[in-house]
Amino acid sequence: ALEMQLTPVLALLRSTLDQLQEKDTAQIFTQPVDIKEVPDYLEFISHPMDFSTMRSKLESHSYRSVADLEADFNLMVSNCLLYNAKDTVFHRAALRLRDLGGAILRHAQRQATNTG
Ligand SMILES: CCOC(=O)c1ccc2c(c1)NC(=O)[C@@H](C)N2
Question: In this prediction, does ipTM exceed 0.90?
Answer without folding.
Answer: yes
